[in-house]
Amino acid sequence: MDLARQLKQGQNSGSILLGQRQTMSACSKGDAKLVLVAANCPETYISDLAERHPDVPVHRVEMVNRQLGAACAKPFPVSALCILDPGQSDLLTLAHNV
């Protein structure tokens, strides 16, 4: 799967939130269907997320935060994002791997 292409498609046709705070907030509200974290996302954040919201699948991608930000067409690093609505993308097929 070309993750950058799927992220672009998801942003255009669905709803994706970027950033650790927005991701945690969406998980708290029960809106997040999947969380993607960068390879260099802090372990404390990932463990806190998994502890508070064990029902939300978390997938660690092989990109570091700068690459994930670029894949989302953003000029800044993105260490975490959540999928609220995948739109026409296949992002929800990513397996829980954290």
UniProtKB/TrEMBL annotation:
<dbReference type="InterPro" id="IPR029064">
    <property type="entry name" value="Ribosomal_eL30-like_sf"/>
</dbReference>
<dbReference type="GO" id="GO:0005840">
    <property type="term" value="C:ribosome"/>
</dbReference>
<dbReference type="GO" id="GO:1990904">
    <property type="term" value="C:ribonucleoprotein complex"/>
</dbReference>
<keyword id="KW-0687">Ribonucleoprotein</keyword>
<dbReference type="Pfam" id="PF01248">
    <property type="entry name" value="Ribosomal_L7Ae"/>
</dbReference>
<keyword id="KW-0689">Ribosomal protein</keyword>
<dbReference type="InterPro" id="IPR004038">
    <property type="entry name" value="Ribosomal_eL8/eL30/eS12/Gad45"/>
</dbReference>
<protein>
    <submittedName>
        <fullName>Ribosomal protein L30e (RP-L30e, RPL30)</fullName>
    </submittedName>
</protein>
<dbReference type="InterPro" id="IPR039109">
    <property type="entry name" value="Ribosomal_eL30-like"/>
</dbReference>
<dbReference type="GO" id="GO:0003723">
    <property type="term" value="F:RNA binding"/>
</dbReference>
<feature type="domain" description="Ribosomal protein eL8/eL30/eS12/Gadd45">
    <location>
        <begin position="3"/>
        <end position="92"/>
    </location>
</feature>
